[in-house]
Amino acid sequence: MTDKTYDVAILGGGHNGLTTAAYLAGAGLSVVVLEKNPVVGGAAVTEEFAPGFRNSVASYTVSLLNPKVIADLELARHGLKVVERPAANFWPVDARRGLLMPYGLAARQQAIAQFSKRDAEVLPSYDAALDRAAAVLRDLITRTPPNAGGGILELIKGGATGRRLLNRSIDDQRLLLELFTASAADFLSRWFENETAQAAFGFDGIVGAFAAPSTPGTAYVLLHHCFGEVNGKPGVWGHALGGMGAITQAMAKAAEARGATIRTGAQVAWLKMNGARAAGVVLTSGEEIRARAVASNIPPKLLFRAYVPEDAVAPETRAHFTAIKSGSGTFRMNVALSELPDFTCLPGKTLAPQHGSGIVIGPTLDYLERAYLDARRDGWSKEPVVEMLIPSTLDDSLAPKGQHVASLFVQHVAPHLPAGRSWANDHEKQAFADLVIETVTRHAPNFKNAVLHRQVLSPLDLEHRFGLVDGDIFHGQLGLGQLFAARPVLGYANYRMPVPGLYLCGSGAHPGGGVTGVPGMNAAREIIRDFKRQSWRGKVRA
User: Fold this and answer.
1) Topology of domain 5-45+62-81+243-324+472-534, per CATH?
2) Which of 26, 86, 267, 487 is the most buried (most CB within 10 A)?
């Protein structure tokens, strides 16, 4: 055991843990980050998965990374550069039709008008409504939720948050209520008539959610993916040069520049206690690390299932945390390509805007619905929903000249397969990976033969490698009962856990998942407040 006692030990070196470390160290606290893997970054890492081919392993795109986090941590100075996609998304529909969605209202209207002139006319009103709702969300996400009450009902109750919302127009209040409670399908059907237009917006409602577009609450998931920006441009998506690992490497540099210690290959075994209080951690090596407080960047379900000692909390409290609903229904693949895909509906293997966009195979809401129902019944979708990015079109450091890498984010798969089957069986994993390749090949006939290598990650792989329980990329679903004051569970929404001195700083806390850095920023603010209030350390800086 080292003689040093840190102010804060951070369990897990993912992007939120690194964000927390940078803010705490910047306030003058002594901080150690403990990461089990050989490199920090959690799910936001870049690696060579085949000779000469590098890609983001799990997290794969940039938009939700909060501009305040970028500025406060000076990530650009520490090497982060984000470039914009040339177009937002591309939906291959059939052999003749595809929807290429550019940026800019007029261009988007022109694209949608090919499918429905009425929907194109409605688009400005829809955008304006989502912009108003996203503005509310941007305000809410950086605030600590009230640590009591009825979860999402806090949004329409009294208190500071309720008063801010009640000051908005009645139309905006109705809009927010609908977005926080309705299904994506119901919400979108009120705006759009064309099934492809509906799917184009409905895809965001199921991203990372093991749910159908008809599931209540998926309208909020849609909104959750709409408040991002790239380089100050709202609604734009982009790519971090060097892959997602470039984000976390910049964060690590920011934390270390402020004095934080980062240790890799440091697997935590359990939480160390001093009476009823968290007092550090014990590593699997047997080393004890003392700390006045511990901040956890791992999913709260895993934290209470595996790391918090049995007698540290009441059984009913532990049961609430271990019962958190989790599971994204997601499957990740990275592939090395000899050439760009040549889409039947928009031919060409020469670099074009569709190759640099998010390529989504999910042409109708019915398609998205069937994909979920298949997975619930059979374990995976017969016709999976696939979002494919080809980041090497924007970043030539990722692949040899003339070749490419692609990220495939796939839905839906059940976190646990039925009928005695298991993701631990490599045959199951490879069989579904084959189906994913065939699904893309139906729209781009050259795709299968262009695949040189592939990296395949099932929900079980995501859990084992990154600690994502049930493969849940959000550390717990963004359902109605797990938002705002009810995230991670009711009574513990202010980043302080039921064990004194233990905090939650990862995506399981408000406002939830995505590579945002916001849970880490918010948690750091609360930890600093407690250190000042309790006089643990006299030199905490403002």
Assistant:
1) FAD/NAD(P)-binding domain (3.50.50)
2) 487
